[in-house]
Amino acid sequence: MLEPEVQLVQQCLQGNGLAWERLVQLHSRRIFNICYRFTSSRHEAEDLTQEVFLRVYRTLGSYRAESGSCATWMTSVTRNLLIDHYRRTKRDRITDSMEDAPQVENKVAPGRRPDQAALDTELGERVQQALGRISPDLREAVILRDLQGLEYAEIQRILEVPEGTVKSRISRGRIELAKHLEEMGLRPS
Question: Nearest CA to 78 among 40, 42, 30?
Answer without folding.
Answer: 30
